[in-house]
Amino acid sequence: MSRSIHNKIYTFEKLDVWQDARSLLKKIYQLSSGFPDNERFGLTSQLRRAMLSVACNISEGTTRQSTKEKQRFIEISYGSLMEVLNVLILSCDLKLISNQELLDARKQIDKISNKLSALKRAYKNNPYPKPPKH
Fold first, then answer.
1. What is the dihedral of CA 107, 113, 118, 123, to 10 degrees?
2. Residues 96, 102, 108, 112, CA torsion sign
3. 51 vs 18: CA distance, rounded Å
4. All domains of the chain in start order, with CATH
5. 133: which DSSP letter?
6. Spatial CA neighbour of 112 closest among 35, 29, 65, 50
7. pLDDT under 50: residue ranges of the chain
8. Of 88, 77, 83, which Cα lies nearest the Cα of 117?
9. Which helix (H) or strand (E) holds 86?
10. pLDDT tens-digit readout, 27-45
């Protein structure tokens, strides 16, 4: 009897903030696919790894038992999100992305940032919160 990979939904998959990070990750891959080949191991790699870190730390934090650990993973995710913003700003300075692409990504970053803050507060108030509604 084969089992579908979609039978079980894990906690992180229910979080709006993880869904938003997943969406931004796709956008980051699309944006960075247009970067020059000589940036493959520079800005392209840095940007993709930082955005991947955002989503991965959200998911990993949901598995931690202590409130402090859960909050720490959210803090790491937030730090990686700011790294993404920094690399995008630099990419715009270098004319690798347009001002509009930066503004569009920044809107998503702001949204994720706010949701990360809400999730961190929720963990502080209850280590097993229901996902914040946004």
1. 150
2. positive
3. 11
4. 12-125 (1.20.1440.60)
5. P
6. 50
7. 1-3
8. 77
9. helix 67-93
10. 999 999 999 999 999 999 9
